Amino acid sequence: MNLHLNGKVALVTGSSKGIGEAIAKRLAREGATIIVHGRDQSKASEVAEQIRTGGGQAHVVTGDLTNDAEVIALLQAARSAAGSIDILVNNAGGSGDGSDWSTTASDVWTTTYDRNVLAALRVTTAVLLQMRTREWGRIINISSLAGLMPPPVNPDYSAAKAAMIAMTASLAKAVAAEGITVNTVSPGMIHSAKLDMRFREIAAEQGIEPDASWAEVEKAVLPLFAQVPVGRVGTLAEIADAVAFLASPRTAYITGSNIRLDGGMLPTT
Known about the structure:
By secondary structure, the protein is an alpha/beta fold.
């Protein structure tokens, strides 16, 4: 399917690694010009160079999204390099060091909220005016299954991701008649480098060899973490595919949605 992204400019926050990197590379393969963002110039530049080596177009911006001045500066740099932003993927965020209900503190919640929700807010409001002027835009917020099915730990992260889902629904209604769609993607368990390392640590404790295949490790360890109906964790490519679809002009009638990529984990009743 042709997603008609040729000539579109996409800013993917937090795209120097992980989910953001996968999304950036997927959008580039569809013909979009990518603004790779991160805090580490060398890592962001490496992703951009890989995109260019693959025949795509990419530029790099760096900056702390919890700092208003740095957000303004990185967006100015992005526009200078590639022009107006058509597609915004608010991926940057994270859970920090983690906490539970015996250690959680209000300052941790404030930091997590700023890193996830307010970071997305700063970038979104800064690009929204031009999207409204041109009557076209795609905004995709990366939340988490934790925002819908919170675990007993990391309550600050679950609350922040739930806020992003609500933020999406509100903004989608506000701009629905202006050619702009706003959607959320909420991943469940995804085969990231961090998850791979953790699964292999547990597999080693169970006597599984260090050089065992991922399929063997996954089969032994996944049931200890979660009951996933499809029987496996998701992939970075599957998240990137969903985001690319939502970024397309073909999805003009999909807005305010929260697309779960959880292998069926969330109970439906």
